[in-house]
């Protein structure tokens, strides 16, 4: 017998909404969090827009101690702590006071952490002022800094670790936590991911010329998943967090439940065939979806909705084709599908976790959030699925089974299957 796993808490720090209620409202109203970034203009970026959480009104001393706030210069870590602690509170859980909570663990991923702190440290060292680095330089720049911070704040005594798989990171972290609870090795796991913001994170993508250049004066129109006029992804940042818990534990303590995790799968295309460092192997993507359905014991015709990776690049049409192949569904038979990246941009390592939070909100609210900026559907997509399956407005719709997938640099894939609870 495998333990059933449910989601009992969520937190988010997204470009269009910090904290769960604000994020849900923004998604429902199709509000964009993509804005012009003056710093990118000053640094001669071609793409001068991005999705960056607005945390100016957030009281950080309600998340960090005064000691932790001293010298804190890692926005990715800040985003992760806000989302992670909010998820824990949302689940009705408190921090362990005396002994570690042996039943609770953390898997919280990132792509790169504390890049601004690292830059600050480099200057200190080059100036010969190594003693002025401060005592938190290491923990703010090590990849596992986010899980270490959250682990100490909450007193988690089970596995506390960090994963990193580019854009797949957040969805992979969720599946890793799910598997640990399912196997009986933990009762609950805080899972999620975070991503730094700023020019030192986004610069490499601008150099690759895969970001849109013609929307600096119209940032809200720039991110165009599934659109014929899509010209690249808009960089984003932030964090999403979810509390996974065994169904038995959740029921015993009367916790609210956002949805059930039925199963999933992670794989790699090995950068063979159509796969490369920056493009997915299509055979591997199809296989990942099929294996996720198999693990969840769900038939392809049972999927009601898909929250895709769909980044507003030339890969969008191929992703739709892969979904159609895996599910053997097309036209009016294709599930409803959406992408949140039109509103928040591509949040890199945080993308999967933020989007999983949004996907589960759809289950809880029994509605499908609309897509923005894809009124001019890509002709290849238009030939595969009916326009009605790509809603342009948020609509109430029964959703029992939802598939969410992420595909990352390095030709790595993850797909998770959620179900409405109670089923």
Short summary:
The chain is 34% helix and 19% strand. It has 423 residues and is α/β, with parallel strands linked by helices.
Please give a structural write-up.
- There is one protein chain.
- This protein is of the alpha/beta class.
- 34% of the residues lie in helices and 19% in strands.
- The protein has 15 helices and 15 strands.
- Strands 1, 2, 5, 6, 7, 8, 9, 10, 11, 14 and 15 form an 11-stranded mixed sheet that branches.
- α4 packs parallel to α7.
- The longest helix has 16 residues, at 75-90.
- Its EC number is 2.3.1.41.
- One of its GO terms (cellular component) is cytosol.
- This is 3-oxoacyl-[acyl-carrier-protein] synthase 1.
- Belongs to the thiolase-like superfamily. Beta-ketoacyl-ACP synthases family.
Topology overview:
Layout: E1 5-14, E2 17-18, H1 20-28, E3 34-36, H2 38-42, E4 49-51, H3 66-69, H4 75-90, E5 104-110, H5 115-126, H6 137-141, H7 145-154, E6 160-161, H8 169-182, E7 188-195, H9 199-207, E8 238-246, H10 247-252, E9 259-268, H11 282-296, E10 305-307, H12 316-327, E11 336-338, H13 341-344, H14 351-365, E12 367-368, H15 379-384, E13 395-396, E14 401-408, E15 412-419
Parallel strand pairs: 5-6, 5-7, 10-11, 10-14
Antiparallel strand pairs: 1-2, 1-8, 1-9, 3-4, 7-8, 9-15, 12-13, 14-15
Helix pairs in contact: 4-7, 8-14, 11-12
